[in-house]
Amino acid sequence: MSISYSTCKNCEKQFQSRYDFCPYCGQKDREELTLSLLFSNTISNYFSVDARFFKSFLPLLFRPGYLAEKFIGGKRLLYLHPAQLYLFISVVFFFLFSFSTRKQIDSVNSRFDNFFSPTQVTNSSVSGKGTTDSTTLEVLNTNKEKDSIAKTELRKVLNDNVFLTGLTQKQVDSLIETEKFKNNSVLSSSFNESKIDSLIAAKASDHEIYSAMGLKETDGAFKRRLYTQGLKFYKSKQGGSILQTFYDTIPIAMFFLLPIFALILKLLYYNRGRYAHHLVFSFYYFAFLFSVFTIILTLNFIMEIPNWVVLVITLSTFSYLLIAIKHFYRQGLFLSFIKSGLTAFLFLALVIPITVIFLGLFSFMFY
User: Does 352 map to a domain?
Assistant: First the structure.
């Protein structure tokens, strides 16, 4: 009795024709690609992932450390892979976040334009006695009122995104002080604005303007880039473009921040498994964080949540970290509290500020 063989179209290996599926790669043999097959496979694959997602999502929210423990223990098909779960939730978060930032960026552009626009005073006169007429006072009061509104709106934008920017309240207050902001900005600290305005109005070359700004022929590439971006910003007055670049780099930065978080855990629990084990824990914890932020964003689309509520929810993520560490690493409450506190401190006080400074510089240099 002869045995017939078929060749798999996917992996190109031979197998006995009596099998309907390739024993090497699992693809079905002799299956014609029809429209119904294409869509049925798509829907089937989607709901297969979706089912595992929901099977993983509830434990992720309500059972800290459970998924990481099960994955390390060998249950790696029952729940969604930690990296896949993290990627899916982070993509959803940044997708929703992009809608909320659009309005903020437009608002920042408008406020920056008000900050750097020269004060327009029409029909004003100053008498010989040194008094200003009523038209001048009216215009000055109007400008002062607009400036106050600009400060209030910019403060709100910065406060609403403090969990991403990492700015302290003191830094926010410093930034929105108009005179302090202008006097210390890269735009006005090293050159005369009136002279630069005159050169721009005369359509002078960028090389001439750079020289007026203080750039020397001997200056290096970094400083030249700084002046290039400074002039670009001075001409456009579009601070929102820098903010947009900052937001766009956050997802990329997370691919570096997450492994650093896992490294901190590895240093604190150096004898508790391989680095990959701590990375699994970090993937699930950051997936939880993005889940919380996604819920906050979603609720904000429906109704405006008070800032104190957002702050309380954000701070509660530390309690989740404490319970997750206690459950996953199986240590006492006191040691878990010390190590989770140390992890949060090192990450928030050292890693995040350095990252924010770097991203801020990167955003300005490449926006």
Answer: yes
Q: How many domains are there within the chain?
A: 1
User: Please, which contacts does 351-359 make with residues 24 or more away whose CB atoms are closer than 8 Å?
Assistant: 351/257, 351/260, 351/261, 352/166, 352/257, 353/166, 355/166, 355/253, 355/256, 355/257, 356/165, 356/166, 356/167, 359/246, 359/249, 359/250, 359/253
304 lies in some domain: yes
Long-range contacts of 137-144 (CB under 8 A, 24+ apart): 143/119
CB atoms within 10 A of CB 165: 21
Judge whether 286 lies within some domain: yes
Count Cβ atoms below 10 Å from residue 329 Cβ, excluding itself. Answer: 22
Mean pLDDT for each 10-residue chunk of the chain (367 residues)? 78 82 79 64 59 86 93 84 89 84 67 53 42 49 53 61 56 53 44 70 77 75 75 66 74 87 93 90 94 89 82 88 94 93 90 80 68
State the pTM of this model. 0.64
